[in-house]
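[Discussion] Sanity-checking designs against the backbone

I'm trying to build intuition for which residues belong where. Below is a structure token string of 250 positions. I'd appreciate it if someone posts a full sequence so I can compare it with mine line by line.
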């Protein structure tokens, strides 16, 4: 047994450690480069913003998900783990879906099933059925799964000098939808608003405390103009940010 072990160690020691710039790279023919596009997608996928709540795992000290300095009301960039009280930028797109979640026990959330377009016949029928009940916001798939109206806010983040930082996304459902509706109503009130691209509006995404009762409160998103008002927050038509946001939207 000892001789076999010594032989194995001798063979391993003869294999040179790989180093950059040495050796000949083989030609892989038809398989050349395959899979690298997957890595590119991972690298370019926009970071996700989470608005932390009292029960968010990142706030809980002593857990593996805890982030130092995390507290309710801060935004967490899940890619960089950066914590910020607000995010400045322009909204590139608002994507509306009905997300199907597997039916779960009360107080728990089931597994993600699928994301459906609002025009999907199944969703249209489910929403129409819910509209006839007292709790019209509770929409269910035919098999009983929850259908949750959800917006994905795609944001091009800007610094204080309106220089692009990069894209981030924030998922908004249920109570978070109201601030989005208020934002859309505010910019729609501008004369000629239909000709103004959504990404010409500089905004600040911030948190606002909402009280449900004397003892219970939570944080919701709030979308406010980056300037004094909606008009002063508009970017000029020749702004590089507008061009960049248009490319991102594609």
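Best answer:
Here's mine. Compare freely.
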């Amino acid at each position: 047994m000892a001789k076999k072990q010594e032989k194995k160690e001798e063979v391993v020691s003869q294999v040179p450690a790989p180093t950059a710039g040495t050796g000949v790279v083989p030609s892989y023919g038809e398989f050349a480069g395959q899979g690298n596009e997957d890595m590119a997608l991972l690298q370019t996928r926009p970071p996700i913003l989470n608005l932390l709540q009292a029960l968010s795992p990142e706030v809980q000290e002593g857990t593996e998900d805890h982030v130092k300095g995390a507290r309710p009301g801060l935004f967490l960039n899940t890619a960089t783990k950066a914590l910020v009280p607000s995010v400045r930028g322009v909204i590139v797109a608002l994507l509306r879906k009905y997300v199907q979640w597997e039916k779960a026990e009360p107080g728990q959330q089931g597994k993600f099933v699928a994301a459906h377009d609002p025009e999907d016949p199944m969703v249209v029928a489910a929403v129409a059925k819910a509209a006839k009940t007292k709790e019209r916001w509770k929409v269910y798939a035919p098999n009983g799964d929850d259908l949750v109206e959800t917006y994905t806010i795609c944001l091009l983040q800007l610094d204080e000098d309106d220089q692009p930082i990069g894209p981030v996304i924030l998922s908004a459902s249920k109570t978070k939808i109201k601030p989005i509706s208020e934002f859309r109503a505010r910019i729609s009130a501008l004369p000629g608003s239909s000709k103004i691209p959504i990404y010409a509006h500089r905004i600040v995404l911030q948190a606002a405390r909402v009280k449900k009762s004397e003892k219970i409160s939570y944080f919701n998103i709030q979308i406010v103009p980056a300037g004094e008002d909606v008009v002063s927050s508009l970017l000029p038509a020749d702004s590089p940010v507008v061009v960049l946001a248009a490319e991102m939207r594609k």
